[in-house]
Design a protein that fits this description.
CATH architecture of the largest domain in chain A: 3-Layer(aba) Sandwich
Shape of chain A: globular
CATH topology of the largest domain in chain A: Rossmann fold
Protein name (chains A, B): Aspartate racemase
Strand order of the largest sheet of chain A: 5-4-6-7
GO molecular function (chains A, B): amino-acid racemase activity
Structural class of chain A: alpha/beta
Number of helices of chain A: 11
Largest interface: A-B, 43 and 43 residues
Distance between the termini of chain A: 9 Å
Keywords (chains A, B): Isomerase
Order of helices and strands of chain A: EHEHHEHHEHHEHHEHEH
Number of domains of chain A: 2
Oligomer: homodimer
Number of strands of chain A: 7
Radius of gyration of chain A: 17 Å
Family (chains A, B): Belongs to the aspartate/glutamate racemases family.
Helix content of chain A: 40-55%
Strand content of chain A: 5-15%
Organism (chains A, B): Falsiroseomonas stagni DSM 19981
């Protein structure tokens, strides 16, 4: 049974459940993967914790992991990139394997035919400050181009905030512009490295370059591990 | 914390989580309702159990309720109409209040301005055979018009099966035709009384008469009970 540590944000984890279902080869209910979603939107803001001295989210993350363990989960997926800043602490606290969203994103890039080289990386200010992607991908031949501080303040951070307030349509334009600027700077593809971003990007015209949806990437990684159900 | 007994089917319960989130007034993660979704698609088929002597789903339903209790749920929503055939047995087995999807559907009809009178009712063969809606709504002034046996076999049951196999686009045409036939017979609105049906109906042109989406209705009932979060 797949355990999903969600609620960060709740729309992204609901979308993860939807994509997990739609990407699973199935003809009837019983072919689908049993899953428990722990959707606790009260987890303290991950970016504020990392860059502004906000409340530590780790105790709330561990409460969710305990809940998933009690429910009988055998593997854990976390559809929130920034929460992976606490990945090692979470993995040390549980015997269940936790899928890593950056590895899932890399697999999703390769699935789309994107090979190591310069890629654009959009994410929360916390994800970028922690170098979550660079720390894992630099040694594998990828180079991450990131938005400037001005682009983060004007485009990416406001776009993520709009999705968390349910305004996916309003989020499209700033998020799409930030992605375009990374391509103009030499990126071969853009990683939507915050699970709110694909929701905004899906709300408007398809972008004319490869984008890596980290919700879909994590869903595919979970299906590869858990399907077919026992 | 809202407990969601889902997986019946998994796409419907993922959509329930999405609609629960989108219909909640929220400006940030922490304004959303904490929820645990128990999505176990292995629950034996409810319609087969009721009309064809299939395996009893009650033990699996009660396992889910125990899981939600253990996770700390304080109220339960079940985004599967047919499972409400076991409502009394489930409610007798837990101290947590279970929202009833038929009451939620009635509230959704009234919200849309539909007053008691003749309505169309689409659902699984199990839901219709158990008279889940009629048993609760007849005494309140509603009269349920249902598809003929031929329409069930040709349109409604195949449409539901297509959604469970992830083919929502293919499900639109048979489900929309069944709804139109109920309106032609005098229904003022059509209740989509199986949580797979709104997924198929949403995959094509909007129908030119009121439809009651039981996923949205149940989401609104859950929000009324659980928002704002404690």
């Amino acid at each position: 049974m797949l355990g999903v540590l969600g609620g960060m944000g709740p729309l992204a984890s609901a979308q993860f459940m939807l994509r997990l279902t739609l990407l699973t080869p199935a003809l009837r209910d019983q072919d689908h993967i049993p899953a428990v979603l722990w959707s606790d939107p009260r987890v303290p803001d991950r970016t504020a914790a990392r860059i502004a001295g906000g409340e530590d989210p780790l105790p709330a993350l561990l409460r969710g992991i305990r809940g998933l363990e009690a429910a009988g989960a055998t593997a854990i997926a976390i559809p929130c990139n920034t929460a992976h800043g606490w990945f090692e602490a979470m993995q040390a606290a549980t015997a269940l394997p936790i899928l890593h969203i950056v590895d899932a994103a890399e697999a999703e890039l390769r699935r789309q035919g994107v090979t190591p080289g310069p890629i654009g990386l959009m994410g929360t200010a916390g994800t970028l400050a922690m170098r979550l992607y660079q720390g894992r991908l630099d040694s594998r031949g990828w180079t991450c181009l990131t938005p400037t501080a001005e682009e983060m303040d004007r485009l990416v951070t406001p776009g993520i905030t709009l999705v968390k307030a349910n305004d996916v349509a309003g989020a499209y334009s700033p998020l799409a512009e930030a992605a375009r600027l990374l391509i103009a700077r030499g990126a071969r593809a853009v990683v939507l490295g915050c699970t709110e971003i694909p929701l905004g990007i899906a709300a408007g015209p398809v972008l004319p370059f490869p984008v890596c949806d980290t919700i879909d990437g994590l869903a595919r990684a979970a299906i590869a591990r858990c399907h077919p159900p026992a």
